[in-house]
Amino acid sequence: MLIPLKKPSNGGFEIKTRISEIFSSIQGEGKLLGRRQVFVRFTGCNLNCNYCDTSLSRDPGYGEEFDIDALYEKINELITPDFHSISFTGGEPLLHADFIKEFLEKYPLPALLETNGSLPDEMAKLTELVQYVSMDVKLPEHEAVSDWDDLMNQEIKSIKLLIKKGINSYCKLVVQPSTTTDTVACIAARIRDEIQDTSKISLVVQPVSPLELWAGKTHKLLEISEKAGEYLDVLTIPQVHKLLNLR
Ligand SMILES: C[S@@+](CC[C@H](N)C(=O)[O-])C[C@H]1O[C@@H](n2cnc3c(N)ncnc32)[C@H](O)[C@@H]1O
Ligand SMILES: Nc1nc2[nH]cc(C(=O)O)c2c(=O)[nH]1
Ligand code: SF4
Ligand SMILES: [Mg+2]
Fold first, then answer.
1. In sequence order, what DSSP letters do the residues of the chain get, joined into one string?
2. Mean pLDDT across the stretch 156-175?
3. Which of 2.40.40.20, 3.20.20.70, 3.40.50.620, 3.40.50.12780 would CATH assign to domain 16-243?
4. What is catalyzed by this enzyme (predicted)?
5. Which ipTM did the prediction report?
6. pLDDT digits (tens, 9 = 90+) for 141-154
7. Is ligand 1 within 6 A of the CB of residue 239?
8. Which residue among 52, 55, 151 has the greatest number of ligand 3 atoms within 8 angstroms of its CB, and so is best to mutate?
9. Taking the domains of the chain in order of start, what are their residue ranges?
10. What spacing in Å lies between the alpha carbon of 5 and ligand 4's midpoint?
């Protein structure tokens, strides 16, 4: 994903990377719900979740090339008085960790990382530079990878790293009407058992969109919340930007 170009005078490499869209909107998911953000959506993803609403951005060739200064210029044009932070999303933003690192070292803006958490070593490059992390834990039924156990182990490593570094983070779990409370219990128990202090991380249950899928089935969300609450602090929040027809 990273393309070293020419060697600048400082001896380092200027890097460019592909971004599919940059826009200003209101954060519609998770614990920063309602915050005005500039969204930077990187291209390419190492997973393939069956519910993904940004499948175009999974193509690493999609979008346009940006260097750090051009990205800053574009973000600057989009900053409004209510600006809270940048949201680095995708695709999978951690495939662009070196680019994000260079960007935030030069332009230290407040930032949220929206990640699948599968790449803890890449996450480690950013722990001194981002203030918020939304880590989406994938369920086996999302069919994101062939080896789900390995993915879960990587995600647990990422959660432990975030807690160790004291980053304001939460886990997200996208649930479908077919998701069982047993599945939710299994994930929530695993997270609880792996971390020492459960006050350090909340679980945001995110009902899959479109919400029409939940007609007559919203009682399942209450059951899922109750089950998750046996293990972790839990919030249930749908994708609010879609309800508002915002980007
Ligand atoms: C598109 S992903 C990009 C960031 C990263 N790859 C990840 O999965 O967290 C951003 C967020 O959108 C969520 N998402 C994607 N499609 C969705 C859908 N149909 N319903 C609810 N959430 C969805 C993902 O689960 C993730 O939390
Ligand atoms: N408004 C709005 N909020 C979001 N929160 C997470 C998003 C994402 O696609 O990562 C997203 C998005 O695409 N739009
Ligand atoms: S990890 Fe994120 S971007 Fe990649 S397929 Fe899953 S939801 Fe989509
Ligand atoms: Mg989205």
1. --EE----TTSS--EEEEEEEEEEEE--SGGGTT-EEEEEEE---S---TT-S-GGGGSTT-SEEEEHHHHHHHHHHH--TTEEEEEEESS-GGGGHHHHHHHHHHS---EEEEE----HHHHHTTTTT-SEEEEEPPPGGG---S-HHHHHHHHHHHHHHHHHTT-EEEEEEEE-TT--HHHHHHHHHHHHHH-S-GGG-EEEEEEPSPGGGGTTTTHHHHHHHHHHHTTSEEEE---HHHHTT--
2. 98
3. 3.20.20.70
4. 6-carboxy-5,6,7,8-tetrahydropterin + H(+) = 7-carboxy-7-carbaguanine + NH4(+)
5. 0.99
6. 999 999 999 999 99
7. yes
8. 52
9. 16-243
10. 31
